[in-house]
Amino acid sequence: MCKHNLHRLKRLRISFNGMYGEIPSSLEQCSQLEYVSLRSNSFTGNVPTQIGKLTMLQELYLGANYLSGNIPKEIANLTRLQWLGLHNNNLSGNIPKEIGNLRMLQWLNLNTNKLSDSIPKEICALTNLQTLDVSANNFTGHVPREIGNLTMLQLLDLSTNELSGNIPVEIGALTNLQYLDMSFNNFSDHVPREIGNAKRLQSLYLSNNKLSGNIPKAIGALTNLQNLDVSVNNLSGNVPKEIGNLKMLKWLNVRTNKLSGNIPKDIGRLTILQTLSMNFNNLSGQVPREIWNLTMLQALYLGNNMLSGNIPIEIGALTDLQYLDMSFNNFSDHVPREVGNLTSLQSLYLNNNKLSGKIPKDIGALTNLQNLAMNFNNFSGQVPREIWNLTMLHSLYLGNNNLSGNIPKEIDALTNLQI
């Protein structure tokens, strides 16, 4: 394609079009190219081996096409390459170990392909790398311990593969890391305390693995953390009080583990927290009153634990709350009328507790409510007429209580109710 007038071409950008067919091997004749972007088209076939002849290339973007076959080892000839994007294709086979020759590389994105085998340790020779994304592939084996050599890394995404073994302690050497995602793999053993050395981390995702042991106290050193997810593992022991040091935290998810003991009151120091998920554990005792100081909470999931005590009137301060799940616990006494202040609430699950008294008519003020479950408790008296004002309701569960009286005709107003 560069036979005639384009042999001096340095930049080629035809991304975000509807181009299809194979990438022409004649591209090699554009030997002066420094920048090529063909991403977000409908190109098919293999990545041509001739691309390895474009030795002046600094940036190559072929992502978001329908390319298949292997990553050609000839790509290792592109020793000036700084940015390489092959993501969102159908590439298969392994990452060629020759990729370790690309010592200038700063950005490598291979996510959402069908790549397999282990991650080659040669990739850890790319000491200028700032972004490494190999998520959503079929990689197996262990993370090479040489990963600790990539001290310039700011983003490391290994999620949604079949990686196993432990999380290497060398992760702690990545002191520039801001984003780490190792979720949806088969990692086992404990979370290394050395992770506390990665003090620039803003997002840490370790969910959906087979991790065990305690949540390390060292995690409390990650004071820039905004998102922490260790859910769906086999973690046990107490939630460390040091988590209260993470003042920047907006999202905390520890659900579906084997955590026990009380919820630490130190969580009440996380004043900008928006989502707190602690459901499906073995937590016990009362919910500390400090939790009700978290006025920026939008979602609070405490269900499926062994929590007890009453629901305090302070709950009415959480006016941004949209999702509240306290189901399958041992909460007792009445539901405070202050729950009617939660006018942003879309889902309220209080089922399977030991709650008693009357259902407060103030629930009728929750006009955004779509799901209301209060079944399997000890509520008595009549269903307050105000509940029939909740015209957004999709589901309503009040069964297995001691309620009395008629079902009023106003129920006909709940036209969205799915029975």
Quick structural gist:
This is Leucine-rich repeat receptor-like protein kinase. The protein is mainly β and 419 residues long.
Name the overall outline. elongated
Let me know the number of strands: 34
Unreliable stretches, pLDDT < 50, 5 or more residues? none
Percentage of residues in helical conformation? under 10%
As a percent range, the share of strand residues is 25-35%
Mean pLDDT metric: 96
Please state the structural category.
mainly beta
Major sheet attributes: 17 strands, parallel
Query: If you compute it from the alpha carbons, what radius of gyration comes out, rounded to the nearest whole angstrom?
Result: 27 Å
Cα-to-Cα separation, first versus last residue: 64 Å
Assembly state of the chains shown: single chain
**What's the total helix number?**
0
Q: What descriptors fit this protein?
A:
single chain, 419 residues, mainly beta, 17-stranded parallel β-sheet, 15-stranded parallel β-sheet, 0% helix, 28% strand
